[in-house]
Design a protein that fits this description.
89 residues, 434 Repressor (Amino-terminal Domain), elongated
Length: 89
Amino acid sequence: MNHKQAKRLLFSNPEVKKEYDNLAVAHEIKRKIIKLRLEQGLSQKELADRIGTKQSAISRLESGDYNPSVEFLSKIAHALGKEVHIEFH
């Protein structure tokens, strides 16, 4: 069984698909933060220093082991020269 087949099988379960979809936003946020940090040539420690936290907090966020508050995301955005916008569709 290849990846595509396994995914199709797993997603045939509505509960599994729902949980996967619920995680999509968190994964997208994580990807964008990592991309912006790397584009600016910052290490996790340098980003952490900019917002007054520890490198381990950035590591947990980027690994997906942490559910950040909007306030924390706002601090990261400002440290990267960006803004946070939340939309409901």
